[in-house]
Amino acid sequence: MARIEFENLAHAYRPNPATLDDYALQPMSMVWEDGGAYALLGPSGCGKTTLLNIVSGLVTPSGGKVRFDGRDVTGQSPRERNIAQVFQFPVIYDTMSVFDNLAFPLRNRNMPAAEVNRRVHEVAEILDMTRELPRKASNLAADAKQKISLGRGLVRRDVAAILFDEPLTVIDPRMKWMLRRQLKKIHQQLKLTLIYVTHDQVEALTFADEVVVMTNGRVVQKGGPEALFLRPDHAFVGYFIGSPGMNLCPVELDADGVKLGAQRVLLDADTLAALKHAGGPFTLGIRPEFVRLAHEGEPGAARAQLLRVQQLGNYQLVAAQCDGHLINAKLEPHLRVPDGSVWLKLAAPETVFFSNDERIPVKVAERTVR
Ligand code: ATP
Q1: Does domain 4-230 have CATH number 3.40.50.1820?
Q2: What angle do CA 18, 25, 211 make, to 5 degrees?
Q3: Disulfide check for 106: which of 111, 162, 229, 235 has CB 3.0–4.6 Å away?
Q4: Domain 246-369 belongs to what architecture?
């Protein structure tokens, strides 16, 4: 397996890109560690497949370099790079048996028959397909065919990396969960370098050691689930991770806090100084999990109008409007929420502030009075 490095990598499908918007991938430098399990997460069109195809060699970047273990592979084909890629839909030989499909990449590399047999059985066992090995692939259901595609990626141990492009799309939800667990287990056993593309945050967070979040052709954060949840580097990460995502409100700096429209939210001196230093435009971000009901006039709180309350079993999802901005709060299921006007604590230790969408590195003090 390989350590993969991007050096000023960029890609534009159109010739002569003039502005950053012309790039499917904006210039970036980053490292994918040897043996790491990464998920590439982002909405449709953000550049995930382009990035994956640049790693595999299916797309040659219009700028920068790709290195495997320090070796420049930018001009090499997928075969020369020794990459296994599993796509959204099964790529298998219908006329062959399941065994022969799994054995194909090994026989292609002249592996001795006994070793082929051992590897194929090992992978079939992991994927719970041992009984299907003699069957013709054409007779199998779509999810079983996709399991063969996964198996063909996993059967080789000499690859630099295995790339998955939304491989579980055709798999039914219950099986999806099981296969994700299996992939994670395989990764722990074999320490493969895996890059897994998805637009589903649950899939990304359960599979990967590190999630790489993309938007508009940019990587905006690379980190574990906790960092993405508690310390989003970019407002987009706050919005995209979580259900519902982070409350994001544009605010203006004031003498002793920030103003959300006409509402004033008091802040501690250190936070104010950090905001001043960073410069605006500012966004206040707080996850629904951390918003709580406050007393009237409580420091760090703002008045809001209740819109609706949804009882969801283990919590109630409260939606309120604070000076034209929607605030979601996940509150204890039995807490009584007053009708009409409510006070919500928005400046809490878990609150984050963004300057121009980038997080300002400061923690709001427990007590938010100056
Ligand atoms: P999805 O989840 O929908 O597959 P994605 O995040 O994988 O999206 P890409 O397929 O990499 O995104 O696309 C990134 C941008 O590049 C999009 O604006 C897309 O329209 C554009 N694009 C992708 N492939 C090509 C191509 N072959 N020619 C021109 N533009 C392309």
Answers
A1: no
A2: 155
A3: 111
A4: Beta Barrel (2.40)
Query: Between helices 113-126 and 142-154, what is the axis angle to 10°?
Result: 130
What are 91-124's pLDDT values in tens digits?
A: 899 999 999 999 999 999 899 999 999 999 999 9
Q: Give the confidence band of 192 by pLDDT, cuts at 50, 70, 90.
A: confident
List the one residue out of 209, 363, 355 whose CA is nearest residue 290: 363
Q: Are strands 63-68 and 282-286 parallel, antiparallel or unpaired?
A: unpaired
Closest Cα to atom 23, ligand 1: which residue?
A: 50
Residue whose tokens read 């230093």: 277
12 lines ligand 1 (CB under 6 A): no
Same CATH topology for 4-230 and 246-369: the answer is no
pTM of the model: 0.90
Tokens of 85: 């890629």
Whether the CB of 199 sits within 6 Å of ligand 1:
yes
Which one, of 328, 347, 155, lies nearest residue 265 by Cα? 347
Specify the ligand 1 atom closest to the Cα of 217: 14
Sequence spans of domains, the chain: 4-230, 246-369
Structure tokens, 130: 């041992």
